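ATPase AAA-type core domain-containing protein
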Amino acid sequence: MVFFESSILNGLRFNQLENKNYLKNYRNAHDASDFIKSELEMIINGENTGYFNSLRYIKSPKKIYFLEQNGHNISEYDFSTGEYFVLSILKIIDTLKNKIDKLRLFIIDEIDLALHPSAQHRLFKKLEKWYKDYNLLFIIATHSLVILEESKPNNTYYIENQNIYNPIYPAFITSKLYKLYFYDRIILVEDELAKKFVKKIIETKMKDIQLKYLILSIGGYENVMKHYTENDKTKFYSNAKVVAILDGDIKDDKKIRPYKSHKHFFLPFMNIEREVFDLLDDNKFLNIFEKYSSEKICNFKSIKMKKEILNKIATSNEVKNIYKKFKEDISECSDLNVEEIEDKIIEYLCSNDQKNEKFITNLKDFIVFG
C-alpha cells in the first residue's frame, strides 16, 4: 500500500481534463529533464532530497509525468496541488528556455496556489532568475504577503475597479488586502530610544499577553500627534487600537492640549538621554559599566562634561552630546559596542519598578483593553 497527498485534480469534476485518463501504460517512458527535476525539487522542498529523481513522462499524445515510488506509479494528476501547479509551469519553461531570441510573456494567475510560504518565496526567486536567464517576462496575480514583500515596489501594481496604481509598497497593499488585522495595537513614540524602552517593558513585564503589536518611532511629539490625527481620518492601521506615548518633557506643555481627545500618556521621565544624564552621578547606574571598563568611569570625559555644567540647567543639545559621549567612552575602553551599551541602559531603566509603576499600568491597560 502507498500513501500520497492527492491533488484537487483527483476530483470527479476534473475527469474531462485532457489526457487525465490516458495514463494506463507506463511503458516506453522517458526521464524528465534535469531542469524540471532539479527546479521542482528546489521549489517544493528547498533542497535536494532526491524525491523527484524518478520523475518520468510518457507521450499520450502530450507529455504526462509520473513518479515511480516503491513499485507504484503516481500520475502528475495525483500530485499535490502545489506540485502539479509548479510542474505545469516548469513544463512550459522547459520548452522555452532555449529560445531566448525574443522576449516571451508568461501570465500566471494565483501563483501562490496551494504552496507553502517558503515554496512561494523560492518560486518567486526562480521567476526573477528565469527572467534574466531565459528572457521570460512574468506577469503574476497574487494575494500572498510573502510574494508582495519580495516584489519591488516599481514592479508591483494594484488594480482596484478600473484603476491601476504603481509603485506599490508592502505596507500599503497589506492594508488594502488584510486591513492590518495582524496588528492588534499600534504604539506611536517619538524616537528609537523610546521605542526600545517600551518594547523592553512589554517583553519583561507583560510576557503573558498574546496579541500582535507594532511600535513606530515618528519623530517629535508634534509629528506623533499629527500622525495620530491622520490615522483617525484615513485609518492607516484599520481596526488596530492606537496610542501615543510621548516624552515626559512635554507633559505639562500647553501645546499638547489640542490633542487631549487622542489616547496618550507619557514616559516616566523626560526622555532617555535626559534620564541617563541625570544618572551619571549615580554609582548604582555607573557600576553596571564599571566591570566592563578598563578605565575608571570617573575619568571619562562625559562624566567631566557633566560636572562642568552641574550648577546650571543643561540644554537639550548638551544632554544629547553628553549621552553620546558617555556611550563612546564605554565603547572605547571595553568590549561592548554602542548597541550593547544602549541595551544595558534600557534594561536598567526598565528595572526601576517603583518609578515605572504608573507607566506600566497605563501601558498594560492599553495593551489589554485598547
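thats it. The chain has four domains: 8-95, 102-178, 185-263, 272-353. The two ends are 55 Å apart (CA to CA). bye
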